[in-house]
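Q: Predict the bound structure with thiamine diphosphate.
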Amino acid sequence: MSKLLEEVKDPRELRALPEESLPSLCDELREEIIAICGKVGGHLGASLGAVELIVALHRIFKSPHDALVFDVGHQAYAHKILTGRRDRMPTLRQPQGIAPFLDPLENTHDVFGAGHACTAISAALGILEARQQRNQEGTVVAVIGDGALTGGLTFEGLNNAGASRHPLVVVLNDNEMSISVNVGAVSKALRGLGARMFFESLGFAYLGPVDGHDLKELLSALREAKRSNKPIVVHALTQKGRGFAAAEADPKTRGHAMGPYELRDGKLVRSRGGSITFSEAFAAALEERMAVDPRVVAVTPAMLEGSALTKLKSRFPERVFDVGIAEQHAVTFSAGLAIGGLRPVCCIYSTFLQRAMDQVIHDVCLPKLPVIFAVDRAGLVGADGATHQGAYDVALLRPIPNIALMAPVAGEDLAPMLSTALERNAPSAMRFPRGTLPVLPPDLAPGKGLIVGARWMKKADNPELSIVALGPLALSALSAAEGKRWNVLDARFVAPLDHAALREAAKNGRVLVVEEGTVHGGLGSAVLEFLAEERRAARVRCLGLPDYFVRHGEARAQRAELGLDSDAIRFAAEALL
Ligand SMILES: Cc1ncc(C[n+]2csc(CCOP(=O)(O)OP(=O)(O)O)c2C)c(N)n1
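A: Predicted complex:
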């Protein structure tokens, strides 16, 4: 059957369609999104909920003359399909394929690339201001979810935009969900008459709420918004996961981010291995401590699911805090909890910790508060790509006084590291990667006691070289060193560095440092600084993440390409000899 989507290769063609065919176009978009996500996985729920909204936006606004700025960009698969990327959508999130979020390098209709939330209003207002100063025409539209209203950056943008009097159009795509059910007072304030009062009091005109799946309502509201001469909010009520029973029926996330799936006899079959992830293992270690120590509490900025904290939340509802997409608040709130005598564990992805660096420095480390950062998704993250790589946490945290920065190699290290962190009367961070737990040789498993310093994974007789590694890469280093007279030291701590172990590692005059964080500023830099300070002569080579943004791909393959698998480590070590 010929599809409308075969005719619509560009938003202009969408605008040329008779209005009656738009519902069928939406059906086709849904079908394609469901099929694509089934094959390659992706952000299904939000994209299904935004189909009518995106069709209506492209109908009323002439992108890219009118700028559509999407928050996060995970809801915009329909926008990708409608802007000339339909044929390539099966490559979504795959190596060299269509990007997981929006990307101006990929398409001129992606005015602003994102991946992290709460940026849309600020970016859109900046674009509008620049256009006005340069006498350029065109409306600028920010599309944000209700989850984005839990984040401070959105409020900084609203504050500025409301006072600016610029005719910025903000479309609030309100599905009452962040990744999980939305949290907080603002979410409640949006119900009933509250939304109008809220936005009008900030200087916006308000249209809505409109049914975000009713094209007539949407088109008429957006038409009116386009004519506005002041900032205006169009409040659209949508349903996350709309049109896919399995997502609609998922009460936790409404099919937020799904791995590949198949429908067999109407049932959803997902291909997820049974192995335990680092996040799950950390949550289990945390649960054990929470069960015996009432001071221990957990904080997450909107990542209950991703950080595997849902079970913990149902067991300890009063001691697990989902604070919304509010990384800065999560950190400073944790500081307050620590001042009050609790032992907060702030579970935060490496990529999102970036947003809260001042809070880490100024609110936690300067007053030396015993906050623990469980830094998840540290290292390569695979399909989520450049915006989500956990590349910078080591380089960002390492220079801050007072904080201990640790990295487990395997699941066995998590509980002792957490105990070590809880024992410290100062800030600590433990960084662990995305993915399932590797197998640690039993003789290397730590005891139940606290962790002190580095761990020798292998001590060679008459060694000719030492590999100093961080995190699970220590296991790759160990296999690279098989049959060789090479030491392997698992640094375990980036800060404080284990000086005695490093002195010993450097004795043979050749040190190879291996880490899944940036080479610039990472453990390798720490080792070089230390050796320089001690005036030790050693040939040092540092392997790690490069000085460019690593795009989406398959993490294992990327590790090999970036010289971080055991073959590459062996090669680099041999080159050093
Ligand atoms: C700064 C930041 N923190 C956390 C996330 C993870 N995240 C991705 S989408 C999402 C929920 C967004 O909800 P909402 O703004 O309502 O958008 P919707 O999914 O409804 O389109 C979250 C928390 C992120 N992308 N960026």
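A: The pocket of thiamine diphosphate is lined by residues 46, 71-72, 74-75, 116-117, 145-148, 173, 175, 177-179, 240, 302, 325, 327, 352, 355 (CB under 6 Å).
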